[in-house]
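To: structure desk
From: M.T.
Subject: fold request, one chain
Message: Could you run this one when you get a chance? Sequence is below, nothing fancy, just the single chain.
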Amino acid sequence: MIVWGGYSVDGGGDLNTGGKYNPVTDGWTSTSTANAPIARDLHTTVWTGSQMIVWGGEDQNMSPLNTGGRYNPTTDSWLATTTTGAPSARESHTAVWSGSEMIVWGSVNDENTGGKYNPGMDSWLPTSTVSAPDGRDGHTAIWTGSEMIIWGGYDGADDLNTGGRYDPATDTWAATNLNNAPPARDFHTAVWTGTEMIIWGGAFSSNVTDTNTGARYCAQSGPPPTPTPTPRVTPRPRPTPHRRPTPP
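Reply: Done. Structure tokens follow.
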């Protein structure tokens, strides 16, 4: 397991350090900081099979970033990702690995734009906005083996129970079905089982509560999504952005 970046509440601010954890030896090894991306939080990472790709986020001054890096754990070395053709600087986006490309989408500014990054070519291509879901953050993204599915999130005014299926081969979007879709929410989780996307939990912005409900979404033809039973909400304040130390 490789961890990297983040924000230290102990006064350290944003970080460009990380570590590799070996569960067999129960031991940690630090990641190199030589040529590492600048310190950040609210970024994304994907694993390509040989490299970890870090991209986006915000820096120590809370400015969004469109930079990143490719980390090779075997050589403990970093290479920067190109900014040529990269999506606009952003944080709170999502990223998935398609098997050949990293696909990023969305942002805290509720953009419905994204990009496909090819690490072999060190190049970017934009994702189409034709029929794309409304811009959002707090959503989830999963990879089915042929499509990226975006679902839920917050559009700056309301929670959403809409989504979209993106096919990178054709650069096209198709909306997810709303029939029996679970209630709109953000900051939930999602996984792909091989045949279904399962979403669970999250927060309802309208009444500031968390939920323990979820649903199964079948991306192919077949039965509609099945909501999980016994809804229960637990009041809890929504997380607020961390305060940055005031420079002396």
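Reply (cont.): Confidence is low (pLDDT under 50) at residues 221-243. Let me know if you need anything else for the meeting.
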